[in-house]
Amino acid sequence: MMYSFSLRESALALVQRLGERIEDVHGLGFMSPAVYDTAWVSMVSKTENDQKMWLFPECFEYILFHQLEDGGWATYASEIDGILNTGASLLALKKHLDNPYQIISVSQRDLTDRIDRARVFLGNLLNGWNVESTLHVGFEILVPALLRYLEEEGITFSFPARERLLEIEKQKLSKFKAEHLYLPIKLSALHSLEAFIGVIDFDKVGHHKANGSFMASPSSTAAFLMHALQWDDECENYLKNAISSSSGQGSGGVPSAFPSTIFECTWPLATLLKVGYVFNAEIEPAVQKIRSYLHNTFTAEKGVVGFTPLVTADADDTATTALVLNLLNQSVSVEAMLNEFEEDHHFKTYSQERNPSFSANCNVLLALLYTPDPSVYTSQIEKATAFLYKKFTDSDLDVQDKWLLLSSEIRSLMVHGENEPQKKRLHPSLRQEIEKAISSGCSVLLDSTAEFASGWLWIEKVTYKSEVLAEAYVLAALKRAADLTRDNISNHNANGVYKIGVNEHSALPNHTHSDVVQHSLQTNGNGSHDEEPVKNGGIENDSSTIIHTNGTANGYYQRSEWTADQEQILLGPFDYLESLPGKNIRSQLIQAFNKWLKVPEKSLTVIENVISMLHTASLLIDDIQDQSLLRRGQPVAHSIFGTAQTMNSGNYIYFTALREIQQLNNPQAIDIYVNSLIDLHRGQGMELFWRDSLMCPTEEEYLDMVANKTGGLFCLAVQLMQVETTVEVDFVPLVRLLGIIFQICDDYLNLQSTAYTDNKGLCEDLTEGKFSFPIIHSIRKNPGNRQLINILKQKPREDDLKRYALSYMEGTDSFNYTRGVVNKLKEEAFNMIHCLEKQDLEENMAIRKLLARISLEL
After folding, report:
1. Number of domains, the chain
2. What single string gives the DSSP state of each residue in 702-768?
3. What's this model's pTM, rounded to 2 decimal places?
4. Count of alpha carbons within 13 angstroms of residue 276, beta-carbon side
5. Residue 713 sits in which domain range?
6. Span of the secretion signal (predicted)?
7. Is there a domain that residue 252 lies in?
8. Which residues, other chains included, contact 428 with Cβ-Cβ below 8 Å and sequence gap of 6+?
9. pLDDT digit string (tens) for 726-740?
């Protein structure tokens, strides 16, 4: 079978079809209608002219029409489809039975009969349901929510897997709080707001609306319309458009996502491009239109995209968009993708993912391999390859994935790097059998394309089909089959993908191997190496790698991998200061508050590490800005490593600490971290301004500064702990007070303690020109006498002048005043501790000891 030019014509026709629709005002989408989402839309009611009515009766008619004889609704390709479709439809039937409103096409008797049959069908499905084997995304929150809503309607179900289902739901929601949805952060949960009825205040999530919908989900948008106090015309119009413009074409059925413009443009294109179809954006308007749209969207959303503009980004759509753009000669960066989705051992699809996705890691790997210079991403390529290799071998080559139902489709993601010349080593009889099988397969595809397009292969909330995706896969399979039987096999690129702009019959040079991929695929999954060539089914494979990169190994420049030695250079100042023992007060504070908060050990370790990193980094910067000479009795870091290197080291740690925070997988934690760093720099900025402009702040202004700076770091620790625990008590006021007490004590000791003198020098705050608490009091006690402020202006290093300043401050009674303020604040703190302990919290001696340790004596 030879490569037919009509295949390319068919492929181009598909691309042109996408190009014609990509600028539709409502977006495009070919996902098949979902009974589940349609049922939710059918439950939207609206009051007009003081009369309540069902807003979308055509959706309810769709539900009635698609109820099966056995009482249930379609189980497309998995039992969870039937559970979700039937559960939502049963709820809709009950709502309409209780409130018929304007619908008179179905009698109460008919509805009651339908409900009874649906109840029996759903009960049977639940009784036989294997929860553990269910992979569909979000089922663990959608099904329990449906069961609760049905129970409120008097319809209850008891089934063997119920307890296990609720355990999985609890695990899924363990790090999720309703308040997360009120933040200006895009979360995947926005796609399923219907699961949070009675849990969230829908009036507080309206800011997430984009183009009239909530993450392009009809069911989620319907739930918002049903439960927000104020009616939203944009949401109503979105649902009308979803009914009329989606694949349901006005029948009343809506898909689980609409529009899906990015997804349903990039995935067909990627499928076609990866097998060698050539599209030139410079001469083909549809390709140019799609490329421009994708590039503009990718740029506008800063390098991470979802299945349609303005929805939560995911690794699959981001990677596939980057892949398509790079294959269409529109080079884009994948750095944002790595920053958003890279984990220690794999790439996540989105935040708070319960199980990593095999296909998502395949797509990320492909995106990395087709960047202009894959060698830049060697460590990430190795990570994804190792993850895929282990998943593939651990599953006996039968990988299950939450986004794809067919394991054959998953395996196809792994073969784009197969080594074409190996086919020449096939035994003649085996070659003949393979070619015969390929020919038969092509005949089936050509004769049954429409049937193949009707397959339920892809997963959203429920399984769906897509005619454009199906057509793309058929065309890809036929193209691959044609290429396999051609005599000039060697004309193919080693990874099966043509560079765009090259004639489809021309040869391309073989790409070079990535050393890191060689290493990953030479292992047998246990870290050992297979030294013998693999022999299987008549094929002898003596290649040490499966995947090839299109890197420029022979180019003038290749970016080297970051080394441990280079890392050590950057961390030199930080490591030096870390090696000098400090008071360790922040670690003690964390441990003391954990007596109450009971934070999981893994999270606590991350928080302790982050606070230690930030404290040390801030000291590096402080010592530069204060022109200090000693820190903890030793030379300051910048006197050894230089000012520029030390400042860079401190700033570098701020960002590496943020990466540590990402391990918590909690969007609130990142928000808290960013706000705390902002507060820290605000506090430091005001302190520097007062010093450099010689403006003495008021006591109130000083305490505000301390709350931002010292108190801010204290608060960061406890705020991070609070979002990682189930204890619902706010400890921030107490910890902020402790930070203020600590700083005032530190100010006092800097001027009065001989131990401080040994570590930092005599009255270091005077040498730095710093307005500390006792100094502020002394200056403001006698504002007409400018002796002290003039001494501060000179930043004295002479001990005699500093001792004179101390004598002056004794004369203004500033040290006695400071002691009185500290005693008053400590009494207030002890009272707060006592009040907290009365709120069903255990007695916390660790907090009391910590407060006692923060004193005016060393």
Report:
1. 3
2. HHHHHHHTHHHHHHHHHHHHHTTSS-----HHHHHHHHHHHHHHHHHHHHH-HHHHHHH-TTHHHHT
3. 0.56
4. 26
5. 570-853
6. none
7. no
8. none
9. 888 999 999 999 999
